[in-house]
């Protein structure tokens, strides 16, 4: 299970870094700070899937709440939306740290 979490976290961090490099290149070219939102990136990649997710949320019980959360999430920078869960998953998948204590005579 830890392996799956670490692999998924690493992939998400890698995608976030790719998106950050793309945003950085666009920012350098425009001479201003530009970040592509998740909605823009998703629309560029595959618009029908964005519409499918929206229609799926409309058919759920808390449709208004889900729609508001989805719209808020789509306005955030894409690298942050992918990077933060990636970091959390990578940290959850790491090996538990064991504290090793030494006795006085072992020092």
What's this, in brief?
The protein has 107 residues and is mainly alpha-helical. The chain has five helices and no strands.
Question: Could you explain the architecture of this structure?
Answer:
The protein has helices spanning 2-30, 38-45, 47-58, 63-75, 78-92. With 107 residues, it is mainly α. It has two domains: 1-35 and 78-94; 37-76, no CATH class. Helix 1 runs antiparallel to helix 5 (78-92). The two termini are 37 Å apart.
Give the helix/strand class.
mainly alpha
Biggest β-sheet strands, sense, barrel:
none
Order of helices and strands: HHHHH
Q: How many beta-strand segments?
A: 0
**How much of the residues is beta strand, in percent?**
under 5%
Low-confidence stretches: none
User: How far is it from the N-terminal to the C-terminal residue, by CA?
Assistant: 37 Å
Mean pLDDT: 91
Give structural attributes:
mainly alpha, single chain, 5 helices, 2 domains
Topology, element by element:
Layout: H1 2-30, H2 38-45, H3 47-58, H4 63-75, H5 78-92
């Amino acid at each position: 299970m830890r392996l799956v979490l670490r692999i998924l976290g690493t992939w998400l961090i890698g995608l976030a870094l790719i998106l950050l490099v793309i945003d950085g290149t666009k920012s350098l070219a425009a001479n201003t700070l530009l970040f592509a939102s998740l909605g823009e990136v998703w629309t560029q990649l595959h618009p029908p899937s964005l519409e499918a997710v929206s229609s799926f949320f409309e058919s759920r019980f808390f449709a208004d709440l889900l729609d508001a959360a989805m719209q808020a999430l789509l306005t955030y920078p894409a690298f942050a939306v992918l990077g933060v869960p990636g970091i959390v998953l990578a940290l959850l998948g790491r090996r538990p740290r064991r504290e090793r204590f030494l006795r006085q005579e072992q020092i």
